[in-house]
Amino acid sequence: MAKKKKAKKKKSKKKVGIEEVKVEEKIEKKEKEKKEKKKEEKKEIIKAILARERVLTEASDEARNLYNKSAYGQVLENGKVQLSLPEALYLLEKGKLHITDKRKKAISSEEFIKKARKVEPNFWIRYSVFKDMRNRGYIIKTALKFGADFRVYDRGIRPGEDHARWIIFPVHEGETLTWYEFAAKNRVAHSTKKRLMMGIVDDEGDVTYYEIKWMRP
To answer: Is-catalytic flag, 163?
Structure first.
């Protein structure tokens, strides 16, 4: 009987030993996954430089993926991506970009806004609309060639796949428009075969949208 008891004890020791090894393997696996995740996060931060009214990224696959995956900016012949000021600030706030000036000094979000306002006095109003649209899942691009601030695509539609659905004019809630200015915006939308939308921005940066349509009596 005594011999049988000793055999049982040896088996239980082996079982405990196997469980300890499995726990150690799990811990090592988790630590490895954490390290790999940190490496990926570091790779995702793209270097860029502010050049007055535009931002140029480094020529890297990560930078080009900004355009390929989410339609940010425009890929240049040298492999760099040219971003608009609203696009650059949005990506900076998301931790995707590391922006420097020509002296290679890092630029924070607050400093970026100050510099952008020197180029575009109403930059914050425009950015509030851009940020809100991106957060809602829409692709929003500049529309200077159409005579508007932005053009917006339906969800799931990329530039090149179909035309933009709206053109947007961001306006501060305290701003006034003459009937002539309002009619001019309507004409722009009508001539480009897009819907006209006004993005009214309040002092907190919240946006309310109004879609304006032509009506025939």
So the answer is: yes
